[in-house]
From TrEMBL:
Carboxylesterase type B domain residues: 11-453
Organism: Tsukamurella strandjordii
Protein name (Swiss-Prot/TrEMBL): Carboxylic ester hydrolase
Protein transport recorded as keyword: no
GO molecular function term, any single one: hydrolase activity
Keyword Amino-acid biosynthesis among UniProt keywords: no
């Protein structure tokens, strides 16, 4: 018998994956650390994910975290959980079992190099209380998941996500979810993942909708995607191959890359790990979405001042030479469409030229192109609420607490202060719940045709469309 919604105790589900025992309290069942694939270590390291066999699972704690190749300073550090079983997922569901509930599968961000589902901001309680089954997915990150290696399949982290989505299709009905009503969502690298899987046939019909918060994926040639492996190999004295790296502990490899990355300016760190062009992504997802309508409805948006989280306001970076900055723009943003003329246009603009350049190149311009490409298949938004802390703008990841309904998360309050507006949370989180449920986020939010249909979360704001169009 299921426990009463207001009582605490075990929660047991029998499904294709086995007998899963989680916990129930305060109206929500929680199943944490469920393996969806075998640990990607030993002979399986750098290989394709292998689905986990059915088993009895004590799902009462988050699974181990994939080795991070980037480290944030205190107090913004991410939790690290030891162990090799990185490929796990977590489920939050209403305490009273139902049937046919909408499902949201969440992919965390972190520049494809850090982060995990154990971050408290990704708690799915708010969705479960609103009648949505919430699933968060751990996948391989850093060198393990995204560095190009000549003797291993590319985009291993994306392939992990596909494996997790296949697990959801086989099992989520036992938790009350409808496998035909799965929304894939994420922020930053998680949004880039969702956009990439929206255009690859390898993901097939594994989800029916997608939400991309601050991220539309590019995909880079093998030589660019190989840079993290080259860094690791040089630091460790080996060749940048799976065969050589497999002989070195994964956390040692991640630490070697992190030691080098820590000396890079933050804006360079953000573009080091990238999806690679290849059989999974034969064409860049951002270009596909700009040209062809996906088979599913999407919410696509970004924040008003994304790069304020990393960049020095007002000026081009003072911590590196003009030549180094120019080289980074040519190498990284050049791939995204930056030309000398575009750079000059930002230098001559008012406000924060380098912040605006990075924000637009990495987030705003790709989002606009995808919104236009998807047209009435897409709901477009701009998040504009300015934090009272840090840069006092709507910087990268500030939207998370509002969209996920977690304003009280301690880590979020380091960015948003102690009194973020609850009405904005209700509006944004409510729109996400409605989109999962019905495919339409709100009655007053129209599908995108032009900037008049841009939905703004926060103070009234507009985009410099003419400048964004210059990116191509």
């Amino acid at each position: 018998m299921p426990s009463r919604p207001d009582t605490a105790g075990p929660a047991v589900v029998e499904c294709d994956a086995g007998r899963i025992t989680g916990t129930a309290s305060a109206g929500v069942r929680r199943f944490l650390g469920i393996p969806y694939a075998l640990p990607p270590v030993g002979a399986r390291r750098f290989g394709l994910p292998e689905p986990a066999p059915a088993a009895e699972v004590a799902a009462d704690a988050f699974g181990p975290t994939s080795p991070a190749a980037m480290v944030l300073p205190e107090p913004f550090t991410y939790p690290e959980i030891p162990g090799d079983d990185w490929l796990t997922l977590n489920i939050w569901a209403p305490a009273t079992p139902g049937t046919g509930l909408p499902v949201l599968v969440w992919i965390h961000g972190g520049s494809f190099a850090m982060g995990s589902t154990a971050q408290t901001i990704f708690d799915g309680t708010s969705f479960a209380r609103d009648g949505v089954v919430f699933v968060s997915v751990n996948h391989r990150i850093g060198v393990e998941g995204f560095a190009h290696l000549p003797d291993a399949p590319d985009n291993r982290g994306l392939r992990d996500q596909i494996c997790a989505l296949e697990w959801v299709q086989r099992n989520i009905a036992a938790f009350g979810g409808d496998p035909a009503r799965v929304t894939l969502a994420g922020e930053s690298a998680g949004a880039m993942s969702a956009s990439a899987l929206a255009v690859t046939p390898h993901a097939g019909s594994l989800f029916a909708r997608a939400i991309c918060q601050s991220g539309i994926a590019p995909a880079y040639p093998a030589d660019v995607a190989a840079r993290p492996a080259l860094i690791a190999a040089e630091r460790l004295g080996c060749s940048p191959t799976a065969a050589d790296l497999r002989r070195i502990d994964p956390r040692e490899v991640a630490a070697a890359v992190a030691a080098v990355v820590s000396g890079m300016p933050p804006h360079r760190q953000a573009t080091l790990f990238v999806p690679a062009l290849g059989d999974l992504l034969p064409e860049r997802p951002d270009r596909v979405l700009a040209r062809d309508r996906a088979a599913i409805p999407m919410i696509i948006g970004h924040n008003a001042a994304e790069a304020d989280l990393w960049c020095t306001p007002g000026v081009f970076p003072p911590d590196q030479s003009e030549e180094a900055t120019a080289a980074w723009i040519a190498e990284e943003l050049g791939i995204l469409g930056a030309t000398p003329e575009i750079v000059d246009a930002y230098r001559g603009s008012s406000g924060q030229p380098f912040v605006d350049l990075v924000s637009d190149g990495l987030f705003a311009a790709p989002s606009l192109r995808a919104q236009r490409g998807q047209g009435e298949n897409c709901y477009a938004y701009l998040f504009s609420w300015p934090s009272p802390l840090l840069s006092r703008t709507a910087f990268h990841a500030l939207d998370l607490g509002f969209a996920l309904g977690n304003l009280n998360d301690p880590a979020f309050r380091l960015h948003a202060g102690t009194a973020p507006p609850t009405d904005l949370r209700d509006a944004m989180h409510g729109a996400w719940v409605a989109f999962c449920r019905d495919g339409s986020p709100a009655s007053q939010w129209r599908p995108y045709r032009d900037e008049r249909d841009l939905h703004v979360f926060g103070p009234r704001a507009t985009r410099n469309v003419e400048l964004l169009e210059a990116w191509g």
